[in-house]
Amino acid sequence: MDGSEKGWTCLRRVAYRTLGSLSGADDAAQKTWLRPARTDADDIENA
To answer: What percentage of the chain's residues is helix, strand, coil (to nearest 5)?
Structure first.
């Protein structure tokens, strides 16, 4: 398992524990996983 697969697995587990539904966890994890891909790197500010 590479780093991105481990990250996806961890994110999905947290979402499942929070939501208690596998389908809801998959939806939430996918939205969270894809969000940085849609964000322009120039718009990200580190606090």
So the answer is: 80, 0, 20
CA distance 25 to 6: 16
First-to-last alpha carbon distance for the chain, in angstroms, is: 31
Question: Would you state the structure tokens that stand for residue 9, as one six-digit string?
Answer: 């697995």
Question: Tell me, what's the pLDDT at 47?
Answer: 57
Handedness of CA 43, 37, 2, 31 (dihedral sign): positive
Residue among 43, 46, 34, 39 at smallest CA distance from 7: 34
Residue 45 DSSP SS3: coil
Q: What is the pTM of this model?
A: 0.70
